[in-house]
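Re: weekly structure request thread

Next one in the queue (259 aa):
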Amino acid sequence: MSKEISCSIEREGSQWQHIPLKDVAQIQSGYSYKSAELVERSAIGMLGIKNFNRDGSYRSDGCKPIVPARAKASQFVELGEIIVAHTDLTQNADIIGRAIQVIDSGGYERMLASCDLVKVSSSDASISNELLAAMLQTEDFHNHCLGFVNGTTVLHLGKKALPEYMLKLPVDMQLRDRLELLFKSIAALQANILRENRALEITRDALLPKLMSGEIDVSKIDLRRLNSHLYVCALHFASVHSPMYHMRLSGLDMRESLR
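Done, posted below.
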């Protein structure tokens, strides 16, 4: 979807207004922590570059439990806010300059942005975090950030990269509103899938020891009927949880909207 947005900006530049990111968003550096603050268990999870998949998606299992001694309130991250990678260990700069929206807490009560990240949240009531995240997930933003990268083994993003970025937004407010509805729907869908996955992992971890010990006997289960049932469920899940399904429900065709 970010590619469609980028193509639309290039094709119809006059239909998009350019606004300095610093004028419509709050930009906050992450928390510089000490190793002694990392613990085995905590109600606070620290977000870092492990929360980024290489394809640009969000990983809720990348948080580290921490008990911060001196973190600012502004360095804590709420659901829906955006984090941008300011450090990268990959040779191809796959992660640095990438933006993702935090859509799941991973089971933690609170989340804290690490010093490898910068937190971004909308300060303009007319721009939702979902729309802001979508605009920051374009190749235009990533390419802009690559111009501020320095370092060899460990890459670092310059502090001026985000404030100097010119955010592209649709001039047509109706289109902007429709895009916001679409992006909010997709974000809610992704968050629901992450929660379902975590629930399934908990169930798996609870059942596996009982299966291995023989406490639960599955030898008499008709696998053919079970597989048939699972196949039907999978088809239903794939259709209802598809972004295209939600686009049709909202009456929004991305290709038509971006023309």
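The CA atoms of residues 30 and 115 lie 4 Å apart. The domain at 2-171 is CATH 3.90.220.20 (Adenine-n6-DNA-methyltransferase TaqI; Chain A, domain 2).
Next request, please.
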